[in-house]
Fold:
Amino acid sequence: MQSAHIPVLVNEVLSFLPSQGLVVDGTLGGGGHSQAILEHNSAIRVIGIDRDPKAPGQELAQKSEPWSQRFNWLHGSYADLPALLAEAELNQVKLVLLDLGFSSIQLSEPDRGIAFSQPGLLDMRYDQSDLSLRTAADIINTASRHELERILIEYGEERQAKKIVSHLLEHRKKNNVRTTTQLKEFIAELLPAPKRKGIHPATKTFQALRIAVNNELGELSTFLHHVVPALPKGATIMIISFHSLEDRLVKQAWRNYSLLQKDGETLEPLLKVLTKKPIKATETEVRANIRSRSAKMRVAVRI
Structure:
């Protein structure tokens, strides 16, 4: 499938594939990982899941290539994996892959409003058909001081959160912030340019809002605490994260599930960790795809 999206750590993902069976790509996105897996091994079937009903990767099922018959697409969240798969299907899962980034295709869509590089409405919902979700504009223009500060501090690790929020509360008394350009320019005027070149002062705010809108850390926590124990023994779990908040959750879950004892109590470990340290992109990959420089992959097996 031709697209502008380049999946990260593909060779590393392929190195952990089972010899046959069912693989779940829980964050289908542009479909790059799914396609690579299907092309790599003809004995593997893939189910792709994504919260975005317009996820471009679903087009894999419509291709004429021989491997397209081994691919199925489901609309939903990886956090609801047991409900999305019938019990028999869940018991057949050999590997679950999560790439917690977002595809370059989604990033470039102006009407989604994820990135400030594209002018558009401040939406940021992965599933824009879900009217129960607040948009980024809803949060910016209606949330309380406490909630806004919490979002910027917890999800964006923004040190200037209180300053941004104080000025934002004054600004929105007269004018709402509705577009990516408005928010980008508002923060750029407020904060000095960072020392690291290429990092815009609005980067952390946009990240924080995206995480809040889509409850990204909540989805990941649900997967780690409820889905992992439900997976069949022998299933491999691979999670690729792009910032410290996600990686910290995965690292802690891996540690807890692999314990033999806790507080003097003998435990039955659920996971065998295969990566003592996270796998990172090679220098060659980073040169070819700058987005891969922040990717970290942790792998474990359900036991």
